[in-house]
């Protein structure tokens, strides 16, 4: 492990960085993927025909806010060496608003929607910031491995949160409680685990970046805008990064659709109970952890671009399997293939952005990567929600349409040259 880290980075610091992935995965697993999304559709919105669309539009609103702020936060973090301070603020925001979901009961859309928007906004903003630490911790040739460690440990964190919630849900259902009784409590569990598990990150992880020379006569906001505009003006020097960000928008639209609507599809199309859905997602998290860990090593061996291409082919096979599934066996196989591809493609994408980013603008470029992911988080789930609504709840057609995003991403990826892109980043550093 030590040979994969930068010369001044100790193993405990790399572990502390990866622990943030462990900590924040509970939010996506419980709130976005496994429990609260299905609860929102069936209980908060009363199972209305438009419920899935409202859920996806709520998330789209939060992602739009992230898109508007992520590049500016990244520019500010680079200029003032403030990644860790901003990460602390976003973590506190996500924890507080997740805990507040405890109060969102049946019919309370007026409360549930803004809390989802705010909690997901702070989660996504923190996700960009923690990713920007990666190139400071890992050697260039080991970005895939170290990124994979974080993603795989993140899925373990998701498993812990899911295991705690599954045990509580089983106990609550055995005593006759309804979803309106036990789902709000799982929001408190999720918030508490996020807060506790993120402590090593803030206690051990170092802010290695130094403040950049400030622009004369400009305040913080003006300087952040100026640095962002400078990056966009110089974008022609990073054509491979730019093309990969476009590719990211496409294939992440499919991934974000699966993350956002997995439990809804399982319950609406496959008629799974909540316990069956939680059991499925629990196993899928194990598969995703294995995918993130193993593909990190494969990625460094065969190259970032071929590794991502391999995962996109897997995603297309998964969509066809889920669409064709009539019983649980084929759907379970499709879900575990999705887990394998999810861990691999998420880790590989983060590592490739780190490879293509010059040192002085890492947080800023990871902000642009976050912008691309959040744009995809609007495009994919909203497309699914619209198709579901227009087809009177036909989730099979909606998942089949999702496959087009992976195909488009694969075609765009063909034009990305990682070696050429890395040379452009090194020239900027020089």
Detailed description of the structure:
With 430 residues, the protein is mainly alpha-helical. It has a single domain (9-207, 221-429), classed as Growth Hormone, Chain: A, CATH 1.20.1250.20. 81% of the residues lie in helices and 0% in strands. It contains 17 helices and no strands. The longest helix is centred in the middle third of the chain and has 32 residues, at 143-174. It is globular, with a radius of gyration of 20 Å. The two termini are 29 Å apart. The mean pLDDT is 87.
Detail the topology: elements first, then pairings.
Blueprint: H1 11-34, H2 36-44, H3 51-80, H4 83-100, H5 109-131, H6 134-137, H7 143-174, H8 179-197, H9 199-204, H10 220-233, H11 239-268, H12 274-302, H13 304-324, H14 328-356, H15 362-390, H16 395-413, H17 418-429
Summary?
With 430 residues, this protein is mostly helical. Helices cover 81% and strands 0% of the residues. It has 17 helices and no strands.
Under the CATH scheme, which architecture would be assigned? Answer: Up-down Bundle
Q: For the record, what CATH class applies?
A: Mainly Alpha
Oligomeric status of the shown chains? single chain
Structural class: mainly alpha
Number of domains: 1
Keyword list:
430 residues; mainly alpha
């Amino acid at each position: 492990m030590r040979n994969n880290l930068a010369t001044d980075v100790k193993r405990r610091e790399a572990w502390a960085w990866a622990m943030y992935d462990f900590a924040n995965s509970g939010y996506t697993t419980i709130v976005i993927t496994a429990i609260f999304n299905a609860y929102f559709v069936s209980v908060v919105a009363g199972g209305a025909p438009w419920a899935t669309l409202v859920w996806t539009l709520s998330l789209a609103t939060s992602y739009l806010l992230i898109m508007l702020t992520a590049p500016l936060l990244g520019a500010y973090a680079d200029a003032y060496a403030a990644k860790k301070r901003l990460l602390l603020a976003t973590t506190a925001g996500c924890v507080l608003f997740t805990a507040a979901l405890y109060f969102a009961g049946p019919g309370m859309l007026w409360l549930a929607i803004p809390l989802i928007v705010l909690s997901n906004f702070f989660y996504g903003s923190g996700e960009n910031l923690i990713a920007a630490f990666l190139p400071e911790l890992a050697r260039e040739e080991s970005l895939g491995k170290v990124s994979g460690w974080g993603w795989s440990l993140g899925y373990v964190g998701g498993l812990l949160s899911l295991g705690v919630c599954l045990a509580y849900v089983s106990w609550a259902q055995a005593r006759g409680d309804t979803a309106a009784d036990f789902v709000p409590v799982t929001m408190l569990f999720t918030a508490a685990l996020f807060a506790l598990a993120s402590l090593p990150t803030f206690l051990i992880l170092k802010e290695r970046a130094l403040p950049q020379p400030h622009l004369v006569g400009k305040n913080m906001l003006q300087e952040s805008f100026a640095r962002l505009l400078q990056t966009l003006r110089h974008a022609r020097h990073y054509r491979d990064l730019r093309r990969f960000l476009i590719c990211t928008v496409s294939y992440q639209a499919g991934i974000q659709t699966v993350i956002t609507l997995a439990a809804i599809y399982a319950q609406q199309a496959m008629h799974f109970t909540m316990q069956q859905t939680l059991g499925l997602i629990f196993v899928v998290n194990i598969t995703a952890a294995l995918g993130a860990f193993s593909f990190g090593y494969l990625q460094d061996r065969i190259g970032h671009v071929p590794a991502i291409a391999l995962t996109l082919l897997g995603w297309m096979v998964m969509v066809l399997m889920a669409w064709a599934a009539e019983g649980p066996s084929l759907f379970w196989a499709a879900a575990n293939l999705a887990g394998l591809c999810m861990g691999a493609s998420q880790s590989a994408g983060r590592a490739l952005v780190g490879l293509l980013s010059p040192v002085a603008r890492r947080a800023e470029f990871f902000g642009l990567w976050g912008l691309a992911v959040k744009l995809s988080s609007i495009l994919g789930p909203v497309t699914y929600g619209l198709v579901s609504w227009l087809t009177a709840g036909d989730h099979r057609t909606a998942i089949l349409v999702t496959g087009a995003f992976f195909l488009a991403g694969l075609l765009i990826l063909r034009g990305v040259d990682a070696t050429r892109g890395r040379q452009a980043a090194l020239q900027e550093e020089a």
